[in-house]
Amino acid sequence: MADTESKAPSNFIQTIIEEDLKAGKNDGRVATRFPPEPNGYLHIGHAKSICLNFGLAQTYNGTCNLRFDDTNPTKEEVEYVDAIKEDVRWLGFDWQDREHYASDYFDQLYDLAVRLIKEGKAYVDSLSADEIRQYRGTLTEPGRNSPHRNRSVEENLDLFERMRNGEFEDGRHVLRAKIDMAHPNMLMRDPTLYRIRKAAHHRTGDRWCIYPMYDFTHCLSDAIECITHSICTLEFENNRALYDWVLDQLAMPCRPRQYEFARLNLTYTVLSKRKLIQLVQEGHVSGWDDPRMPTISGIRRRGYTPESIRTFCERIGVAKANSIVDVALLEHTIREDLNRRAPRMMAVLRPLKVTIKNYPEGRTEMLTAVNNPEDAAMGTRQVPFSRTLYIEREDFMEDPPKKYFRLAPGREVRLRYAYFITCTQVIKDPRSGDIVELRCTYDPATRGGDAPDGRKVKATLHWVSAEHAVPGQVRLYDRLFVKPDPDEREDGKTFIDFLNPDSLDVLDDCRLEPELAEAKPGAIFQFERLGYFCADSKLSSRDHLVFNRTVTLRDAWAKIAGNK
Ligand code: ATP
Ligand code: MG
Questions:
Q1: Relative to the alpha carbon of 232, which ligand is closest?
Q2: What fold, for 273-343+472-562?
Q3: Is this prediction's pTM over 0.85?
Q4: Which option is the CATH number for 347-462: 2.40.240.10, 1.20.1250.20, 1.20.1530.20, 3.40.640.10?
Q5: Of the listed 273, 275, 335, 475, which one is catalytic?
Q6: Strands 470-477 and 546-551
Q7: Which residues of 114-139 are buried (b: 16+ CB within 10 A; e: fewer)?
Q8: Ligand 1 atom at minimal distance to the Cα of residue 236
Q9: What 3 state SS string does 37-84 have?
């Protein structure tokens, strides 16, 4: 798939790679990796990184590793590892046999740390965490050397080995790089390389009680795997100096380079695992795969397709400056995709009974409906029509305002694929006054088309036949937050205060076109006039149909962008 020779690079990272290739760097190899920490489920921000890293490998005939950055035993779980693999696969990417774990390198990393100690470039410090913080200085003041900074190599080696052997409690000692306590980059002020953490690890069990820190592990894992371009998000820009320092000191055979790009931020949601965990743990959502969550498993269950996510990631591009992407663009992208592929169906979410007085009792006729006007190859289907129907409650108004063109007393409208009907009578519950039924007449001459006399109607309604329709539950999802940036600081409030109380509306008495009884979990449809809906992969069965609204039909993005 090295098809870019002729194409201009589509982002600054491609430009860098192409220059490297031209200069003959890395023997013409391109090797990237996606390095999740298995401490939560992946979200759509991770999808950007996945598409970028795996995409670069595809474009340049290279490789992309899946590497679990599993150096924190207390926050990581096998459940997360499995979910991450499922999500990357679902997005359409394949790491083949290149599944790696930073924990596989613990022996090697330990040996490399010992090498640094022997070369006088690392020392064991015995200050407490608080003291270390105090000694570090500030952005405007240099730090101070720890009193333990000049321990002899022998003493350091002995202490480090005893740390490994479990002789000390958590926090008693750490291993630090010996760089410069006055360095303008605070991360370079003798950063911690190893800490004691007496906790079982999901892969190495109790074999270790010291664990390497991210900055030490990450660059060396890249070097061990011979990664050429190590791509991460902007917040690691300051870590690059340390990345380079470690690799330079240890002169590893492969020398990866780090490049930073802007992380994805989306309006009306949060993209931080810590916050997503909080939403799950405090029960604000039903789980990691709640269809309102921006997790990959959530948007999958909501009905998003992998193609639409990949297209979205292409559209937002890869830049060096942080920005917030309008979620309307994501919604626009899924609409575009589903418009092309989703079969149309009719479903009535809030049913209102309609009796066609002049239609023979007991008769059923089959009418032809188009499966997808965007794709003739998807063909047609037969929809049953009879004397008793359901239409949408909001498609009738007894006393309609001026711009309301749908059904009203005395007014004629079209029923999609069927006939023109005219409302002749409104039946109300004598006690509550609620409208419970409409009596109408139909014009047999309008079957599946226009009136022979040329008279026009201003509205077309969807409907189902009462006797043939299947019942089902429809879950209307909306944005999880009411504020475009829920993280924005406001006095005494947190993002939790901006949860949208109406983000889920469950409708239990919906009537669906009979064919929907066969909908397989995960199958996606356009319910005409209402939006795109998918059969819930967890809750829907033949006996109890449950559909999630993926997205409405109203395209805010197309309006903003003026491109439709
Ligand atoms: P979070 O901030 O959500 O906790 P993280 O950076 O801690 O995310 P990791 O598991 O370390 O999560 O992320 C794996 C990779 O995905 C990293 O390379 C990280 O830079 C990238 N990544 C994480 N969030 C985003 C995002 N919003 N946009 C683009 N890339 C992201
Ligand atoms: Mg991280």
A1: 1
A2: Ribosomal Protein L25; Chain P (2.40.240)
A3: yes
A4: 2.40.240.10
A5: 273
A6: parallel
A7: bebbeeebbbbbbbeeeebeebbbee
A8: 20
A9: CCCCCCEHHHHHHHHHHHHHHHHCCCEEEEEECCCCCCCCCHHHHHHH
Domain locations along the chain? 12-261, 273-343+472-562, 347-462
The verdict on whether 37 is a catalytic residue reads yes
From ligand 2's centre to the CA of 71, what distance in Å?
11
273 catalytically annotated = yes
The ligand 1 site (C-beta within 6 Å) comprises 35-37, 45-46, 48-49, 232-233, 263-264, 271-273
Number of the ligand 1 atom closest to the C-alpha atom of 50? 16
Per-residue pLDDT for the chain (564 aa), expressed as one digit of tens each? 444 455 788 899 999 999 999 999 999 999 999 999 999 999 999 999 999 999 999 999 999 999 999 999 988 789 999 999 999 999 999 999 999 999 999 999 999 999 999 999 999 999 999 999 999 999 999 999 999 999 999 999 999 999 999 999 999 999 999 999 999 999 999 999 999 999 999 999 999 999 999 999 999 999 999 999 999 999 999 999 999 999 999 999 999 999 999 999 999 999 999 999 999 999 999 999 999 999 999 999 999 999 999 999 999 999 999 989 999 999 999 999 999 999 999 999 999 999 999 999 999 999 999 999 999 999 999 999 999 999 999 999 999 999 999 999 999 999 999 999 999 999 999 999 999 999 999 999 999 999 999 999 999 999 999 999 999 999 999 999 999 999 988 889 999 999 999 999 999 999 999 999 999 999 999 999 999 999 999 999 999 999 999 999 988 777 776 644
CA of 83, nearest ligand number: 1
Ligand nearest to the CA of 215: 2
Pocket test for ligand 1, best of 42, 46, 312 (most atoms within 8 A of CB): 46
CA distance 301 to 504: 14
Q: Under CATH, which architecture does the 12-261 domain have?
A: 3-Layer(aba) Sandwich (3.40)
Substitution candidate for ligand 1 out of 32, 37, 49, 323 with most atoms within 8 A of CB: 49
Report CA(559)–ligand 1 centroid distance (Å): 31
Q: How far is the CA of 106 from the centre of ligand 2 (A)?
A: 19
Q: Cβ–Cβ contacts within 10 Å for residue 562, how many?
A: 6
The distance of Cα 414 from the centroid of its chain, to the nearest Å, equals 40
Q: Which residues are paired to 316 by β-bridges?
A: none
Sign of CA dihedral 101, 103, 107, 112: positive
List the residue whose alpha carbon is closest to atom 18 of ligand 1: 232
Catalytic residue among 144, 263, 406, 529: 263
The Cα 243–Cα 252 span in angstroms is 12
Write down the catalytic residue from 37, 161, 365, 515: 37
- Scan for tokens 């370079």, then name that residue: 188
Tokens representing residue 499 in the block: 């949860």
Do domains 273-343+472-562 and 347-462 share one topology? The answer is: yes
Distance of CA 273 from the midpoint of ligand 2 (Å): 9
